[in-house]
Amino acid sequence: MRNPLLQKFILLALIGVLLLIPLSLIERTIAERTAYRAEALHAISAASAGEQSITGPVLTVPVEEEYDDEQVEERDGERHKRTVRRKRMHLLTVLPRQLNFSGDLKVEKRAYGLYDTAVFELQGVIEGGFDMPGQAALPPLGQNAQLRWGVPTLSVGIDDVRGIVGEPKIRFGGASLTARRGVKAAGMKTGFHASAESLQTGRAESVPFRIELALVGTGSLGLVPLGEVTAAELRGNWQHPSFGGDFLPRSHEIDAQGFRARWSTTALASNAGTPQAEERSRGFQVRLISPVDIYQQALRAVKYGILFIVLSFAAFFTFEHLRNLPIHPIQYLLIGLAQALFFLLVTSLSEHIAFALAYLFAAIASIALIGVYLGAILRGWQRGIGFSTALAMLYAALFGILRSEQNALLLGSLLLFVALAVLMLATRRIDWYRLGKPSTDPAEADAR
After folding, report:
1. How many other CB atoms are there within 10 angstroms of residue 409's CB atom?
2. What pTM did the predictor assign?
3. Long-range pairs for 321-328: beta carbons < 8 A, 24 or more residues apart
4. What is the pLDDT of residue 74?
5. Range of lowest pLDDT (50-54, 103-107, 294-298)
6. What is the percent of the chain with per-residue pLDDT over 90, rounded to a whole number?
7. Looking at the chain, which terminus has fewer C-beta neighbours within 10 angstroms, N or C?
8. Cα–Cα–Cα angle for 355, 333, 437, nearest 5°?
C-alpha cells in the first residue's frame, strides 16, 4: 500500500477501535457504581423499612353452620335412611363499600456512605364503611340449619410491617379495637388485624370504620383500592414525585413545598373482588425519585464518547493535511485518552458535587489540557484555542442532550448531522487523490 493518506486513515481507525477499550472500562465502572448504590439503598431499607403498600381493610366473618345430613345405609339387604347432625364453617370476606384514604408524607434523605435515598414517614387515615353480611351472603344452607356467627376480624395488609410506628388506632362500629400482629384475610401476607368482639353479627347493616396509621418506608408508597368506591389524597414535602401504579391521579399539584395528588376509582375499574384478585395490584402509587440520576446521565454521556473521538480525529486529520502540519498517531492516541478520561472525571466528581458542576469542572479540565497540548503540536496557541473552542461547543451540546431526556434522540441526531455537514462543507473543495500523493513540487508544497 503506497498511498500515505490511506495508510494514515487506517491507522487512525485502529486507534479509534483501541480507544473503545478505555471507554468500555469506564462504562463498566459506572455499572459497578450503580450496583454499589443499589446495595447501599438495600442497606438503608434493611435498617428501617422498604417500599410500602397498604391493602384493605378487609373484613372476614366466620360462620358455623349446623345442619341435618341424611345418609342412606344398607342393612340386611334393605336401604335405611338416618339423619346425622353435621357442622361446617363458612368464612365470609367483605370489602369496603366506601374507602377513603388521606395521608401526609414527611420525606427526608438518609445517607449510606456516598449514597442517599428518600425515606418517608406517613401519617395516614383510612375510613369508610362495610355493609355487614346477613344470611343471604352465605351459600345454600343445609336442612334445619342453625348458624353461629363468629367474631368479625378487620385485616390491613402492609408490605413491610417493620415500618409500623406505634399502635394503629382502630375504630369499628363505634368501638375501639386493639391491633394485633398478622392478617386473617386470604391473599394478604403481612400486616395487622383487629377483632370486633363486641359487634353483633348476622344482621345486614352498615358499619363505619376509621384507622389512623403511622408508617415508615423507603422509596415508594402504594394503596390498593379494594372499596366499591375508593378515593385517596396524599400530600408530601417531596418536589420530585413520580406517579405510577395501575391508576394515575385524577389531579395533582407540584410546587416548591411539595406535592398533592388525588385518586379515585370504583370496583368496576379496579376489578376489586377479593384480596387474591388484588395481590399483584399496585393500585395508587407514588415514587419518591431523585431528580438527577448521576449514573444514568454518566452512562448516556459515555455512549457519545466514540462520537467525540471520531469528530476530533476527523478535524485533526483534515487540518494536518490542509496545513501540512503532521500529527503523529501517538498524539492522536493521547488526545483520545484525554477525551475518554473526561467521562471518568464526570462520574467521580458527580458522586461528591452536583452533576452540572461536575460536568463543568471535568469539561474545563479536559478542554484546557487538550488546548495546551494542541497549541504545542500545531505550532501556535491560536490554533489550540480554536480547537478548544470547538471542543467546548461539543461538550456544551452533549450537556444539553443529557439534560433533555425527552428530546435526547432528536438533539443527538441534530448534533451528528451538524457535525457531518460542517466537515463536508469545510472539505468540499479538497482533492483527496491529490492529497494522497506525495508532492514533488517545492512551490506547491510551500503553497500548502
Report:
1. 10
2. 0.70
3. 321/5, 321/430, 321/435, 322/430, 322/448, 323/448, 324/445, 324/448, 325/378, 325/379, 327/377, 327/378
4. 74
5. 294-298
6. 11
7. N
8. 135
